[in-house]
Design brief:
Elements: H1 2-14, H2 18-25, H3 38-41, H4 44-47, E1 54-56, H5 61-67, E2 75-79, E3 85-90, H6 91-97, H7 121-131, E4 135-139, E5 147-152, H8 153-172
Helix pairs in contact: 7-8
Amino acid sequence: MAVIHSTLVVRRLFGYSFATWRFHLRGETIRSAHDIGWVRELTVGRLMQRDVQTVRAETRITAFLRHVPLGSAERVVALDDAGRYAGMINVAKTHAAGPSDEMVGTRLHHTNRMLLPRMNAKEAMTLFEQEEADALVVVANTDTRQVIGILTEANLLRRYAEELDKRRQEEAGLT
């Protein structure tokens, strides 16, 4: 009876259990025992799309427009002369601006924001929010900047929701 009473008192006063409070002290932002563990397993490396269309940053816009027709991709990853990530270029905006002798490198965005495959979904969501991006490139590491994939915010949120739903179904005994 004492354990039940103390559990109810702690939940009533603090809004969560003692164990959850300990996770908060360690920097975990969880609401219950259901939120921990599986989020760490949901990594960028598991969620990313590996087929990435690339172009050299030194490519002229006119050549880019011929090489990447409107509607073939939303964004293309630009690589520098050493094959490292340089930034992303929006295909629709580039087509709307029209032909130019400028280099693709002059129209790049998200040049210094990258995801790493070991990041979890929570870390990726934070980076998407900070960058206000709908897609970010995934690199093997920040030193080599070797592109290994791309992750869209929509795909991240969809997969997170699917995993959350799966956990709730397991909890309810539906699976």
